[in-house]
Design a protein that fits this description.
RGS_sf; Regulator of G-protein Signalling 4, domain 2; RGS; 153 residues; 73% helix; Regulator of G protein signaling 17; globular; disordered C terminus; mainly alpha; disordered N terminus; single chain
C-alpha cells in the first residue's frame, strides 16, 4: 500500500527545506548527511548558484558561471550534478554570454531532486536526529532555566 503525502505536508517540508538551505547551521548539518550519501555536490551547486545571483559585477559573474560549469556540470566529473543532456547543452550555449540567472532552471531541478529524495532521507537520518535532539534538549534546558520558579529541583 502506497502512502500519499498531503499537499500541506509537502509545503511544510519545502518550507523546512528552505530554512535549512538558508541557515549556515542547517547547511552544515545537511552537508554532513549529503557527504554520507555521496551527493554533497547538489548542495555545493545550489550554494554556488546563490552566490552567482548575488554578484552584480558582469566580469566576475562570467567567471563564476564558468567555474560552476567546470566544477558541477562537465560530463566527465565524478561529482557532477545529475542533469539530462539537453540541460547540459543549454548551459553550454548560455556560457557564450553568461548571466547571474543562467543556472536558475538547473538549480530548480537540483533543488527539486534534493527536496524530493535526499531531504526526506535527511529527516530520517541519524545526523538529523542527533542534531535535532541536542538542539531540543538545549531549548528545554534554556526554557527550564528561564522559568526555573515553575520547576521543582
Amino acid at each position: 500500500m502506497k502512502k500519499y503525502v498531503s499537499s500541506y505536508c509537502v509545503i511544510a517540508l519545502s518550507q523546512n527545506f528552505e530554512m535549512i538551505l538558508h541557515s549556515p547551521e542547517g547547511r552544515d548539518v545537511s552537508w554532513e548527511f549529503l557527504q554520507s550519501e555521496f551527493s554533497e555536490e547538489n548542495l555545493m551547486f545550489w550554494i554556488a548558484c546563490e552566490e552567482l545571483k548575488k554578484d552584480t559585477n558582469q566580469s566576475t559573474n562570467a567567471e563564476k558561471a564558468r567555474i560552476i560549469y567546470q566544477n558541477y556540470i562537465l560530463i566527465f566529473l565524478l561529482n557532477k550534478v545529475s542533469l539530462d543532456s539537453q540541460v547540459r547543452e543549454d548551459i553550454i550555449r548560455s556560457l557564450i554570454d553568461p548571466s547571474s540567472m543562467m543556472y536558475d532552471e538547473t538549480q530548480l531541478q537540483i533543488y527539486t531532486l534534493v527536496c524530493r529524495d535526499s531531504f526526506l532521507q535527511f529527516l530520517k537520518s541519524l545526523v538529523y536526529r542527533k542534531h535535532f535532539n541536542s538542539k531540543s534538549q538545549n531549548h528545554i534546558n534554556s526554557y527550564k532555566l528561564a522559568n526555573s520558579k515553575f520547576f521543582l529541583p
